[in-house]
Amino acid sequence: MTKNRSIFFNPFKKGRKLYSILKLKCPRCHEGDLFLNKNPYKLKDLDKMPKSCPVCGEDFYRETGFYYGAMMISHATTTVIAVIVHVTVFYFYGWAIAPNLLSLLTLLIISFPLVFRSSRAIWINFFVKYNPPVK
Ligand SMILES: [Zn+2]
User: Fold this and answer.
1) How many angstroms does the Cα of residue 94 sit away from the middle of ligand 1?
2) What is the whole-number distance in angstroms between the Cα of residue 121 and the centre of ligand 1?
């Protein structure tokens, strides 16, 4: 029997990196949660991660300072957001500094928890392949 394969590429299917990144799941089994509290806006628990995956046991703290690399991802993401905001605001207000800064600061503050967590998820996905444990 042949596998039922869709002709369309679905990046959000379990087993793909995007699934793990967008759902903040363990990069190895795609089942365990990367963060203890699912709500990123609960700022007290923003960076709280389990030591290892509760499902497959993958080590989430691979070495001391492992997530320093995630800051590069965060920086790149923030730069992309800043460019998009600037181009959008420039279209309406030109070079006026106040609308630029206000809209950029507002958007960065609102999106900070999401950028922070997705950066960590992207970073750990660089190093861990999808390899679910056999049941
Ligand atoms: Zn896992």
Assistant:
1) 48
2) 13
pLDDT of residue 95: 85
pTM (predicted TM-score): 0.87
Q: Which two tokens stand for residue 68?
A: 């320093």
Ligand 1 centroid–CA 81 distance in Å is 30
Residue 11: partners with Cβ closer than 8 Å, 6 or more residues away: 18, 19
DSSP state of 25: B
Looking at the domain assignment, is residue 33 inside a domain? Answer: yes
CA of 60 to the centre of ligand 1 (A): 9
Residue 24 domain-assigned (yes or no): yes
- C-alpha 28 to ligand 1 mean position (Å): 5
Number of structural domains in the chain: 1
Q: Could you list the residue range(s) of the whole structural domain that residue 88 is in? A: 17-127
Q: How far, in Å, is the centroid of ligand 1 from the Cα of 46?
A: 20
- Residue-wise pLDDT tens digits, 68-92: 999 999 999 999 999 999 999 999 9
Task: Check residue 48 and give its pLDDT.
Answer: 96
Q: What residues have CB less than 8 Å from 127, skipping those under 6 apart?
A: 27, 62
